[in-house]
Amino acid sequence: MLEQHLAALPILIPLLAAPITFILGRSWFTWLFATSTSALACFFSWHLLAAALSDGVLSYALGGWPPPWGIELRVDTANAFVLLAVSTLSTLVLVYAKDSIEKEIEASKHSLFYTAHLLCLAGLSGMLLTGDAFNLFVFLEVSSLATYTLVSLASDRRCLTAAFRYLVMGTIGATFILIGVGMLYMMTGTLNMLDLASRIDVYESSRTINTGMAFIIVGVSIKLALFPLHMWLPPAYTYAPSAVSAFLASTATKVAVYVMIRFIFTVFEVEHVFEEMRMDLILMVLAIVAIFKSSYTAIVQSNVKTVLAYSSVAQIGYMILGLSLVSVTGLMASFIHIFNHALMKGALFMAVGAVFYRVGSVDIKAFRGLGKQMPLTMAAFTIAGLSIIGVPLTVGFISKWYLVTAALEQNHWVIAALVLAGSLLAVVYIGRVIEAAYFQEPTESQAHNKIKEVPWLMLTPMWVLVLANIYFGVDTSLTTEAANAASEWLFQNTEMATTRQEVIK
Amino acid sequence: MAELINLVLLAMLALTALRIIFLKDLFAVIMLFGIFSFLSALIFINLDAVDVAFTEASVGAGISTVLMLGTLALTGRKEKANSHSSFLPLVVVCITGAALIYGTLDMPDFGDPDNPVHQHVAPRYIEESPKEVGLPNMVTSVLASYRGFDTLGEVVVVFAALIAVLSLLSIRKETEQDASESGLKSHHVLHVVAKLVIPLIILFALYVQFHGDFGPGGGFQAGVIAAAALILYALVFGLPNAFAVIGAKFLYCMASAGVLLYASVGLFSMYKGGNFLDYNKIAAEPLAGQHYGIIIIELGVGITVFAVMLSIFYAFSSQTARSNIK
Amino acid sequence: MNLWQNVEPSQLITLSILVPLIGALLVILTGKIPNLREAITLVTATILFSIVLAITDFTFQGEDMHIQVIELFPGLDISFEVEPLGVLFALVASFLWIITSIYAIGYMRGHNEQNQTRFFCCFALAISSVMAICFSGNLLTLFIFYEVLTFSTYPLVTHAGNDAAKKGGRIYLGILLSTSIAFLLLAVLGTYSLTGTLDFRAGGIFDDSHNKVILGGLLVLFCYGIGKAAIMPFHRWLPAAMVAPTPVSALLHAVAVVKAGVFSILKIVIYIFGLEELKTLATTDIMLYIGAATILLSSCIAMTKDNLKARLAYSTVSQLSYIVVGALLASSVASAGAALHIATHAVGKITLFFCAGAIMVASHKKNISEMVGLGRKMPITMVAFAIGAISIIGLPPMAGTWSKWYLTIGALEADKLFIVATLMVSSLLNIAYLLPIPIKAFFNTSSGEQKPWSWADTKEAPLPMLIALSVTSLACFVLFFYPQPLIDLINLIPGVSTEVEMTNNLNGDG
Amino acid sequence: MLFLDVISSILLISGVFFGLSGAIGIFKFPDFFTRIHAASITDSIATILIVGGLLLQTSFDLNTVKLIFILVFLMITSPTASHALAKSARHGGLLTMAEAKEKKQEKTG
Amino acid sequence: MNFILDHYNYWITIILMMAGFYIVISANNLVKKIVGLNVFQVSVFLLYITMGKVSGGTAPIVVDGATQYSNPLPHVLILTAIVVGVATTAVGLALIVRIKGAYGTVEENEFKDQDDAI
């Protein structure tokens, strides 16, 4: 029976668990419940990916109403792959959160944290799996509201302004998407994405549809923090509790990137977006500016979480660059980087959270001498940092390899060089932290109170991610296969849509 | 005639919006926003969207305005002079507006029945839903059955809002001596009228809840109206008395229960062998199944919306009460 | 001679990489007991050398040895393959590791260094990655272990942990990492996108169908991307890395790391570009002249340095460019000379570094101007220094003679008289900056009357160090009189062999 | 039916008149109490007249009942709201115009 | 002229949207920002409802004798969107209350100054 509902389960499980978690209140059991729920969702998303890899596309008609009349969940390799990253990260972060939030969130709000986390997971899963443009908006709002909550749970007052800014920008983004979806609906009379694709007649290019598309792309760009619409991200990730930063940085923006890919490739035709409207040029330029500007900003920050946040903006630049190359390899590079970046940023933010747990600060000065005091944490930070830089045998190298290959495929030598030059900037901002940890003497106040390693419950998920960083950097069969299947499927989709149009006619 | 009303209302709407931009008195801004909401509700009625109008009037103009006023009580009603330049926002807005205007150029004519929007999916809702779902109100059919998953998401959004507000503002019971301060104690007329009206409002809420299948209304509107009844109670008799009627803990359970009730219908249909939220499978007869399903999920929606709206009001007003004591 | 008869030849590659790794692990485990730890280091080094000897044996037998470890990208895997050039480098590195281990034991104890376990562990790791570079079967593997080598030596460079070490380490990592990511990776990927393969293939994987301009660009990217070859202006890391303890400077920055750089260039030139293809590229000449300029300029800089290790470092920079020039001459003789220079320069320069370390341990002197008269107190050390210096200069009867000989002939053959002149001038410069040191140490007559310091308490360095430096200086002799095995090995390199035989005859006549 | 239509028109027109005058009053009157007086006219008499007019337009079905409900509800709530406002104003210490004048005279005198 | 009449609704809607959008991005006071956000959203709702209207149609509730109904789907979507909007508003207002408590002001430039001062 579960097989039949496989597509719906990753959304439903956290969705149902959230209200239960809320009632359970503050207890040790709440944590266990939330974590095991998330693990269950993760388990089913593994199955879902396996099913998608073997069967191709899974369609699940909610309410038993066939699409386009009812809402459809549409699972293919692409979203199953991203979903796997999201649910895995969620589980690991929840394991990590038990001790981490003790220091960062008031005790009375712990159950709210778990509830919001599960809601966020449910929202992100919904965004990924749904095949309906308006349903996407609804789940976008579920995840966004949960995210605002999570960000504002920290004890630093600046998290409030960060959350407010995030809320305003996020709502503007969501409303833009709403406008765009409305325009598409106005011209086609349907909301189902596949149906939309078959009904948008690109050759009779309509100004309304083009505008709708532009609004959707801008709205999603706000959500995924594409430069220059990224202003909400650095403060939000900096002042949020560490567990939240780890989860959001590794999942939330990635899901938005996927949504962008999905709209561009499955709803609007690729040729239309890229060849007629030259969206690829705009995206490419923005992505490259994002990589350099944000990396540079990251270099001059003193708060390590801000450094990582700006680094995230830069890494999103890489993902967008991959998709703007308009090739199977480029798209594959984006997908692989979505997955890999989740692994690296998760580990990095967890390590920084561990430092906050013991030292009580994430300023770069606080990292001095930690290489000796917290060897495991700093080793995790170092390996994940090397991964961000793109050192061989880590996942970062794999992403960069595909991205540069994709650029070179089309003889974009300059872009290939810029991508690699961008990772040099990563050397600097990661190197600063590592140097402080290993080669600088601790400050006087820190030297006095003996700093110990963090509890094993925090170390375990961190190291699971670190090992995943290495494992998937060596054995790339899973990521490559899934990403390749995903991107090839997305490129074939245009043909599929046209054949379907004929059937309907 | 309808067109003319429409034009006039739209013009009034535009005037209100422009006035909001330039007013510095935030109280007036919020009042104007309430007017804006009511005007748009009128336009919605004029455009045949009765359910939407109902919701906009109760949710947009009602609850939103109340919450804004509650915030204003804590933050002060004057906006300070704006120091930074408004040039950049103006440029952004102009570009966005120009893009939108560009987009309208190919838009189909207003109200033309041949528009694509009325062609593809909608006809089935209009023609088949009375037979397939069995309800005269197509909006309810689509909302609760065809797009029931959206509605579940919507309930979850409301629930998420509760989580967010609770994580920001904690609800605390006031002690006894504070209770005497709050409420409109000396307003005897109000007391009497409130006692008279509150049962009526709740009755009306129940009517809206269960009549939503046949006329405009449904769980959202009902939940908000019922919440409004208790908000009135809390305003007139003081927050502590309202707590005595419905405590915060109980509301939390209600909010969760509503979501779970909704989802359990889906799970039950899964158990019966259908897809999630497939009401046809709930009962032996598909139409009966649709009927049960819709009634139960609307109830779930109503419960959650009621509980969440009231909790949010509690959260805001206990902040106000605390700051008053200070 | 062959202890490893029973092992599948291909598995020897795995062993050669794993043995140092296991050694590193054991070093960590036995970190608490210094004697055991150092015994393990020595045993590991010896085992490794015997493995490499076995591999050499199989190479001469014409055994085909290759393994594939894992497929990193579709159609691209981490694979290892034995070929003569790699064997040559592996022989040199593994042999000198034994010597250096002996030396390091004396040095680290004599100097009372901190964190000795970390030192020996990273050392073994570095050797492991050097082995992987030696036997790498494609450019991807080479690149990966090139980076691993950079990271595993970083802790060694910053070993002292003081400000100077940190600064040096930053320059070291900064230059090596940036050049490798920005240029080398781009070049590797460019090669891949042009040819669809990264395998090392006899005669190169490029042919005339590829755009010459792009190939020329790739060559420049490769040359600068391999920052370990220290071509100007990316040579700054090498002097900076001299803050490391002397055994590190000796093995890694005279042998393993820098040689890994020039070895990579040589390998890329021979197996990726192919000598024939190389001749047709416009940038070959440009890089050749840059290499020549590096030879001369760094020799000049070396003369101005008073710090002995700094002088040696610039000397290394200069000597590395010999090999680069040899590779870029695109003549088979010059390539043979370049390959041979890897070995001969290694033994010569490691002797010099050993001596520098011995002097530092024994007398705590770092500057050349303070070493006047030192020869009488430390005769063995200074004699060894003289031998090393003569070998580097390229005078008989030392090993360096052969490689310079072949390089010069290669330059003549390629009709690059400018390079011949450069080599000659450079030899003169070598004499100018190396020979004065032993001469002053032994025959200081000028400043005999006034001695501001006393050598009274200065003795010879500890025994392990003396053994080490004697062995290497002996090797300088041996390689002059008995270079045949190495030359035979070089002859096996495809595209390099025939011409070498011819020059051998020539050589025999002379 | 004509008769009913005429009466209904009269009711509606007069209702609109009161509503309009109330609105003008809110703008033109000088202080809070006079304004609330104007506003409560809109609330009470204008709504009664308009709803009454509409009642006559219906054909005495469910809609009539609904309108009657609305009428009753408004008749309860509108005056109460005006009353509560005014009372709160008094409670908050706001003076009527006459009182304010008196006070002013006392001060000057 | 027909074109103008047919698109008048859309254009007014766009003017409203832009008014709301302008308030959001230019207002310094957070409460006003939220009001602007609401105006913006309500205007988008108007766009949807406008497109759902059919001339001569009635509300989509089955009535005897009615032949043409307006499109119910936009109504459903906007019902959802309204509730989403009020949820966002509530969260935003709660944040404002907390910001007031933490900074003592709800003017954007003032608490920015306070943050920079740290």
UniProtKB/TrEMBL annotation, chain B:
The chain crosses the membrane at residues 6-22, 27-45, 57-75, 87-105, 151-171, 192-210, 222-243, 250-271, 291-316. InterPro entries: CPA3_antiporter_subunitB, MnhB, MrpA_C/MbhD, MrpA_C/MbhE. The keyword Cell membrane applies. Keywords: Cell membrane, Membrane, Transmembrane, Transmembrane helix. Residues 115-170 form the MrpA C-terminal/MbhE domain. Residues 189-310 form the Na+/H+ antiporter MnhB subunit-related protein domain. It is found in: Cell membrane. It is a multi-pass membrane protein. Residues 11-76 form the MrpA C-terminal/MbhD domain. NCBIfam families: PRK12504.1, PRK12507.1, PRK12508.1. Belongs to the CPA3 antiporters (TC 2.A.63) subunit B family. This is DUF4040 domain-containing protein. The lineage of its organism: Bacteria, Pseudomonadati, Pseudomonadota, Gammaproteobacteria, Alteromonadales.
From TrEMBL, chain C:
Keywords: Cell membrane, Membrane, Transmembrane, Transmembrane helix. Residues 76-120 form the NADH-Ubiquinone oxidoreductase (complex I) chain 5 N-terminal domain. Residues 136-429 form the NADH:quinone oxidoreductase/Mrp antiporter transmembrane domain. It is a multi-pass membrane protein. Pfam families: Proton_antipo_M, Proton_antipo_N. Its main location: membrane. It is found in: Cell membrane; Membrane. It comes from the Bacteria. The chain crosses the membrane at residues 12-29, 36-55, 85-107, 119-146, 171-192, 213-231, 251-274, 286-304, 319-339, 383-405, 417-443, 463-482. Belongs to the CPA3 antiporters (TC 2.A.63) subunit D family. This is Cation:proton antiporter. The lineage of its organism: Bacteria, Pseudomonadati, Pseudomonadota, Gammaproteobacteria, Alteromonadales.
TrEMBL record, chain D:
This is Sodium:proton antiporter. It comes from the Bacteria. Keywords: Membrane, Transmembrane, Transmembrane helix. InterPro entries: PhaG_MnhG_YufB (IPR005133). Pfam families: PhaG_MnhG_YufB. The chain crosses the membrane at residues 6-29, 36-55, 67-86.
From TrEMBL, chain E:
It is a multi-pass membrane protein. Its main location: membrane. It comes from the Bacteria. Gene3D superfamilies: 1.10.287.3510. The keyword Membrane applies. InterPro entries: CPA3_antiporter_subunitC, NUOK/Mnh_C1-like. Keywords: Cell membrane, Membrane, Transmembrane, Transmembrane helix. It is found in: Cell membrane. The chain crosses the membrane at residues 12-31, 43-63, 75-97. It holds the Pfam family Oxidored_q2. NCBIfam families: PRK07375.1-6, PRK07375.2-3. Belongs to the CPA3 antiporters (TC 2.A.63) subunit C family. This is Na+/H+ antiporter subunit C. It comes from Thalassotalea eurytherma.
